[in-house]
TrEMBL record:
Residue intervals passing through the bilayer: none
Keywords attached to this entry: Leucine-rich repeat, Repeat
Annotated protein name in UniProt: Leucine rich repeat protein
Organism of this sequence: Anaeromyces robustus
UniProt-listed Gene3D superfamilies: Ribonuclease Inhibitor
Family annotation (PROSITE patterns): LRR
UniProt cross-references to SUPFAM superfamilies, sorted A to Z: L domain-like
Statement: the UniProt record of this protein carries the keyword Repeat: yes
InterPro entries for the chain: Leu-rich_rpt, Leu-rich_rpt_typical-subtyp, LRR_dom_sf, LRR_domain-containing
Length: 138
């Protein structure tokens, strides 16, 4: 029945794969650790609404994250991400996306498919430009 799991402010280097089998989980926070890799099994968390993996050492995120259809809040700030997949557009219920303070150079135009997006944090990256289509996020 566990639906909220907070394991923040620790020294975890390896994402505990066992978490990916907590099917009722709606809120998962692993911020401020030393996690380098998220297992693809994260795609099992189909009820997840909030995922906070900010302030870790992530260089990439698995495509399976973009299959979490109920996700409303995704925070990946202060990692080492260089890109965001165009699959980001699949997260139709996403209301808040924080990818600030990474090394991202380009935002995929598919971000404009996020019609429920209310908050978008892009500061502190290496962006050269933003997609013209962003105006559709009115």
């Amino acid at each position: 029945n566990l639906n909220w799991l907070e394991i923040s402010y620790n020294k975890i280097k390896k994402f505990p794969k066992e978490i990916c089998y907590l099917e009722n989980l709606e809120i998962l926070s692993l911020k401020v650790n030393a996690i380098e890799i998220i297992p693809k099994e994260i795609g099992n968390l189909m009820n997840l609404k909030l995922l906070d993996i900010s302030q870790n050492s992530l260089k990439s995120i698995p495509e399976e994250i973009y299959c979490l259809k109920k996700l409303e809040v995704l925070s990946l700030k202060e990692n080492l991400l260089k890109s965001i997949s165009k699959e980001i557009g699949n997260l139709k219920y996403l209301k808040s996306l924080d990818i600030s303070y990474n090394k991202i150079e380009e935002i995929p135009k598919e971000i404009t498919c996020l019609e429920n997006l209310e908050r978008l944090y892009l500061n502190g990256n290496e962006l050269k430009n933003i997609p013209e289509e962003i105006e559709s996020l009115k």
